[in-house]
Amino acid sequence: MHNMLKNFYLTSTLISFLGAVELEKYDASKIADVFYQLSGDTNNPHKKINHTKGFCALGEFIPNPKATKRFDIPLLRENSIPTQARFSLGGGNPNESDKSKARGLALKIQGAKDSFETVMLNTEINFAKDPDEFGTYFALRVPKNGKVDTEKLAYYTENVHSFKQHAEYMKNLGITPSVANTTYYSIHTFYVKEGEKWIPARWKFVPTQGEKTLSEAELKTLGENFLEQDFKTKIAKKPITYTMLLVLANPNDITDQTTALWSGKHTEIPLGTLKINTFDGTSCNQDVFMPNILPQGISEPKDPLFDVRNAVYGITFGRRQ
Fold first, then answer.
1. CATH number of the domain residue 93 falls in
2. How far apart, in whole angstroms, are the C-alpha atoms of residue 203 and residue 221?
3. What is the largest CA-CA distance in the chain?
4. How do residues 131-178 score in pLDDT, each as one tens digit?
């Protein structure tokens, strides 16, 4: 009986301690602090602390003329728009293996009178739906006395729906051999102007060379750094291109959560073609790409993460100057 009560007490204490129902509160500044605890370097205060490993490229975005007939986005009326791109891996390790699943693509599309910046991931959904989950997700990975509390991490992953869903999603995500075979997603739901209406939509950049993933056997033949060289090899022959597809929300789709998986058949509108043709070294690695820099005709998401995400970018950019 004593042991039963003891186990019950320990279980109850664990649940209370882990905050199974209520997570610790996080704002942009506190999230930035967690990033520095996780990936900061006192010997290199200018270090980028997330998506640290990456390379830069240049190209152009060529709008689809048909899209302007439906959507009132003046930027799309231009013929060709200079674009800066940054391909990256998730995490704060500058020596992260290219076999990592977490990948990103950031773009600065600079038109004559308007500009558009977007920061995308190779996943359709995020691992957190609000700032508290976002901060907790990374805080759980900060070592204490040189060691991550794996039991606590496992408990949260099992009991926080967003974490569990994302972990299951990542299990089924393959590793691509090239950025030219990777699709990148907006994660957030934005609003685009159609006549007098603003309609919810996400976007994705789909590689025209097709999506491909590596088998276990193929992975073993590769080193830890293959993406950059593959990129250089490919663009020496021809540009790497993507189709930007605007994915319109269905009536029952959840539009205010970055963790919401949309299901069913969706209307997809080609907004244009991204053509990447020049390797640009690492010149943009210290730049900041701000998702809230949107052109006329595209308005901000209504989820609780978007403003915080932009604020964190601003804070961390300022700290590494």
1. 2.40.180.10
2. 34
3. 77
4. 999 999 999 999 999 999 999 999 999 999 999 999 999 999 999 999
Residue 33 CA to residue 11 CA, distance in Å, equals 30
User: Are 105 and 245 in a shared domain?
Assistant: yes
Q: Give the CA distances from residue 13 to residues 24, 108, 141, 144, 164, in Å, rounded to whole numbers and listed in that order.
A: 16, 48, 21, 20, 22
One domain, residues 4 and 32:
yes
The string of pLDDT tens digits covering residues 179-204 is 999 999 999 999 999 999 999 999 99
Backbone angles phi, psi at 303, to 5 degrees: -85, 160
Task: Compute the distance between CA of residue 303 and CA of residue 95 in angstroms, rounded to an integer.
Answer: 33
Last residue of a domain, one of 146, 167, 188: 167
Which residue range(s) make up the domain with 151?
1-41+129-167
Instruction: Give long-range contacts, CB 8 A cutoff, 24+ apart: 108-113.
Output: 108/83, 108/84, 108/289, 109/61, 109/75, 109/81, 109/82, 109/83, 110/81, 110/82, 110/83, 110/84, 111/75, 111/78, 111/81, 111/295, 112/78, 113/74
- Residue entry with tokens 């685009």: 192
What DSSP assignment string belongs to 51-73?
Answer: S-SEEEEEEEEEE-TTHHHHS--
Name the average pLDDT for the chain: 92
141 and 229 inside one domain: no
Provide the CB-side half-sphere exposure for 238 (13 A, CA): 5
Q: Give the pLDDT score at 10.
A: 43
Check whether residue 33 and residue 160 sit in a common domain: yes
